[in-house]
Write a structure and sequence with these properties.
It is a single chain. The protein folds into two domains: 153 residues, Rossmann fold (3-Layer(aba) Sandwich); 83 residues, 2-Layer Sandwich (SIR2/SIRT2 'Small Domain'). The chain is 36% helix and 16% strand. With 252 residues, the protein is an alpha/beta fold. The strands form two sheets. Strands 3-2-1-6-7-8 form a six-stranded parallel beta sheet, sandwiched between helices. The protein has a two-stranded antiparallel ribbon with strand order 4-5. The protein binds 2'-O-acetyl adenosine-5-diphosphoribose. The site of 2'-O-acetyl adenosine-5-diphosphoribose (OAD) has 25 residues, from helix 2.
Length: 252
């Protein structure tokens, strides 16, 4: 049951921000990071896989792991949560979609101008000279989790390609971060979907919106009870909550 005050706030919002994390892609079969048992960081050590030092130490281990993740994304499809977010953009005057995810499921659901705070699995670049390859990489050849794969070489300088994601200890892309913070400060309603909200600076986004007086809506089956009348929790999987929210607010 969606509170009528939330439906009213969504119908009258001028600028909606949707801020997503791994939970929005969970129902597409992409594992999250911190969910008990199924989360990637339950099974794999980020220090061995998600840092520049790890790549220097063992590029084939790191590249193989990210190619495994890229393959899982290529095999996945957008779910009703991704679709509902793309549809919502057609119902409100302005919508900014900010994601922490490195998959492209929002784009494949039809969302445009997605702000990727943590980069993308689909945009590798050279570890040495930062240039991107001229041709998109071919689909990975069914790698398994933990299988080593030599990274391809850069056609400019011969350096190794690295995944185009933000690793621990690295800065977020500054244009993306600036645009995300500006949208958070300007919006009147922010939907935070499927994120544990523990990784900064991305996790600043909902705090900035709250401080600017926006209504906050958390979509998370494990979410905590909201603290104020301007904050709501839809404690359901995103693939159920978001289509229901869009339907009840705008019909169709
Ligand atoms: P987490 O794995 O930390 O959190 C996922 C959240 O999604 C949890 O709060 C779950 O309860 C929730 N969840 C699970 N299934 C869901 C569903 N079907 N619908 C809605 N919510 C669901 O993932 P993130 O918050 O995205 O960073 O993690 C943030 C960052 O930490 C990632 O971008 C990544 C990681 O280290 C980098 O790689 C830089």
């Amino acid at each position: 049951m969606i509170p009528s005050s939330l439906l009213r706030a969504l119908r009258s919002a001028r600028h909606v921000v949707v801020f997503t994390g791994a939970g929005v892609s969970a129902e597409s079969g992409i594992p999250t990071f911190r969910d008990a048992l199924t989360g990637l960081w339950e099974r794999f050590d980020p220090g061995e896989l998600a840092t520049a030092d790890a790549f220097r130490r063992d590029p084939a281990l790191v590249w193989g792991w990210y190619e495994w993740r890229r393959m899982k994304v290529l095999q996945a499809r957008p779910n009703p949560a991704h679709m509902a977010i793309a549809e919502l953009a057609g119902h409100v005057p302005q919508l900014t979609l900010i994601t922490q995810n490195v998959d492209d499921l929002h784009e494949r659901a039809g969302s445009r101008e997605v702000i990727h705070l943590h980069g993308s699995l689909h945009r590798p670049r050279c570890f040495a000279c930062a240039r991107e390859p001229a041709e998109p990489l071919p689909a990975p050849d069914e790698p398994e989790a933990g299988r080593r794969l030599e990274p391809p070489r850069c056609h400019h300088c011969g350096g190794r390609l690295r995944p185009g994601v933000v690793w621990f200890g690295e800065s977020l892309p500054s244009d993306a971060l600036r645009a995300a913070f500006a949208a958070a400060q300007a919006c009147d309603l922010l939907l935070s979907v499927g994120t544990s909200g523990v990784v900064y600076p991305a996790a600043e986004v909902p705090h900035l919106a709250r401080a600017a007086g926006a209504t906050l809506v958390h979509v998370n089956p494990q979410g905590e009870a909201p603290q104020s009348a301007h904050e709501h929790l839809l404690a359901l999987p995103a693939g159920q909550a978001l289509p229901q929210l869009v339907r009840e607010a705008f019909g169709g």
